[in-house]
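Help wanted!
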Amino acid sequence: MITFEAFYAAPPALTAHAPALLVVGPLIGACVAALSPNSRWAWMISVGSTIFAVWMALCLAGEVARQGVVNYYMGGFAPPLGIAFRIDALGVMMALLVSSVSAAAALYSGHALDAEVRSSKHTLFQAGFLLCVAGLLGLVSTGDAFNAFVFLEVSSIGTYALIAAGERRDRRALPAAFNYLIMGTIGATFYVIGVGFLYAATGTLNMADIAARVVTLGDSRMVQAGFAFIVVGLGLKAAMFPLHGWLPGAYAHAPSLMNIFLSATATKAALYLMVRFLFGVFEPGSDFAYHFMAWVLGPLAGAAAVICSIQAAFEKEFRRVLAFSSVAQVGYILLGLSIGTTAAASAGFLHLLAHALMKATLFMAVGGVALHFRGRTLDDFAGAGRDAPWTMAAFATGAASLIGIPLTAGFLSKWRLIEASLAAGQIWMVVVIAISSLLALAYAGRMLEAIFFRTAAPGAERAKEAPLGVLVPLWILAGFCVWFGIDASLPESIAIAGAQALMGGRP
Amino acid sequence: MTGYIPGFDANLALDAILLVMLVVIVAAIAATHRMLSAVILMGLYSLVSAVWLVVMDAADVAFTEAVVGAGVSTIVLLGAILLTRGAAAKVSGRRRFLPAVLALGVGAILIYATLDLPDFGDPASPANAYVGRAYLEATGNDMGIPNVVTAVLSSYRGFDTLGETVVIFAAAIGVAIMLGFGERAMADRTIEPLAGGPADHHVVLRVAAKLLIPIIALYAFYVQFHGDLGPGGGFQAGVILAVAVILHALVFGLKDTMAAVKPKFARGVAALGVLLYAGIGVTCIVNGGGFLDYDHLFPRHIEAQIPDWILGPADPAHPHHWGQHFGIMAIELGVLFTVAATMVTIFYGFAGRSMEAPQPGAPRSGAA
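Answered by r_m:
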């Protein structure tokens, strides 16, 4: 918790309402962006509101360090009558992650939108982007099961349209967005059916209240069905293997701004909500929750880490390689969580942070080069290292972290995962992580080989260095990848605090 | 509730009839390959569910289902059909197998869990005995309005409703990003208004529409401002208001309507609605409460000045909750703005594109 102390000195009037303002800031920003006269204004509003969200998240971090848990009652009504935001160390971790990645993405969007989206749509695009940000921030802050559904929808509806907006560069964005729309809607519907069952069984929508009442119900069929629907629904949203079919297309063909933002935050937020239910609402001691984690979640996560890495190794398109790798990395995170100990969960969360950081770096580097360059496949990127050394060096940093090379953020998080699985006696998990890391070496190696060791075919379109407005946020992200590889005390203390808040003192 | 014939439960019979109708309609939707029939049947499905919701005493939900499900979404889907092929592609038997198994599995889980559900209307069920009951008991004291549904929707869980309004706003943005606002239709000089010429066969339609549109709009405002007392509120009123605009467009032509209600205006109003809602919430913060805490909508010294006659003399034991009354009214207005403007924006998006769609039967070029 030591690291949060730096933020004690926030203005008290703002700090008291930080939970609401965290969400309402980007929300109001979205409305103003939709009303703004031109692209430049919308961009400034977008950057301003995301930075405001970062500030509010930092205020909250200070509050959480002081109080442990921040409760905020919307409309002044205490639960179960009203909706409460409940933010603990884990929620703060997610809020910091979402807001800071969104700020980096917003900075980056100034250049990217000009190249990728029709200029008449820039204001709407920024408005939609801010709605996604507000939705995800609400999702990670709320303590109310139905309110979480509302925010899931807010973020999703914006996301579908923004992915489709990639059609100017790549027509395949349209079917990909439609695919995601259908799968995402099924996921959200399943989630709300599950919440409905829980409401029928307990009569309340507040998560803590549901948890307190579920314990007394014993083996209720409604609770079991609610559990199943919620896990499958959120699994779809989180691209949990084998429900990840929508993800590669949606990531690969979206505008690069959405690539960066989605890969770092969207699946993670759904994962966060699932974890909240697994550990916070359904008691992990209960039979079906335990069996689910040991026999379903763990093996599926392992399968994801291996199978999707193989798929990534055989993909030809740059962004699709990265997208499949994302599903595999979600597998790592779930592996850690499925063990069910505090140490393993904190390793999982550390990997969540590290992965968000490196995927944002990788997608931003690819997007930065692709601003003036229509290349998609590995062959198109041949020789890019010579044409755009700064951008591609950042890409290499991210790729090194993805493989897990020492002195990068990805190394430490994998190391902690291996430690935790050894401590829990799960040797097969160590084997899975080792195999998957070798595969990561293969697919990341193919990309790096194309970029740095091959020369462009004569007459082929050449990559160009990304503009300064892209290089600055890109190198900030890449710098974090290295910094957290050398000194991981900040992310690790956040992840440990998050895991402890989630587990509530269990081993 | 037993009817006049001994042993015959009229409510149960009605439930059974409506449910069988729903099942038949769904089966028909699944069976048909013609999009037009599917859309009409979906409208019918919404209408029957609305009736069923009335039977279950959920008047507010029934109202929404009728105006949104049976009304506006049918129009939007018809617009979408104009832009696409009229029939679904045939799917081979093998590709149907897995979805069928999945659907049956999900159905089995639903039935499995339903067996444990409390009886419908059981006063001792958790939903009725716990929070539901608390709402019924607290609403009078907390806000002094008779419609508990409105109290829950706009005050107790007003934050959810803000979220739902934002979802609708997001839908407007999404459709506008993908389809535009129908500006092309506005710029298109070839579309002639129907009225006037000798080939005008729509006289009856136009006269009827002219009579109906003001009444529809008036009814929207009745539903809006009556929401505190009976079924209704911003969502339903917004859709009804949008229907008045859409009817105008259908009868008098998109171009005339767009001259009256400009696409840019509609988009702005959609954003303003959310701004109004969120702004009320922030005002409550500024005046010393939490977000959306309407009790702090007005600073104390202003609240004391509000004359009693606005709502009639107050019962000394229950003073007027001015903040709650005005807060709910204001946010419902925000909902009205966003919903009405979004529906119009979505309609413009589809209808504006329909103008470019190939005529039925004409060869399509470059179909994907």
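OP: Thanks! One thing I noticed: Confidence is low (pLDDT under 50) at residues 189-197, 359-368 of chain B.
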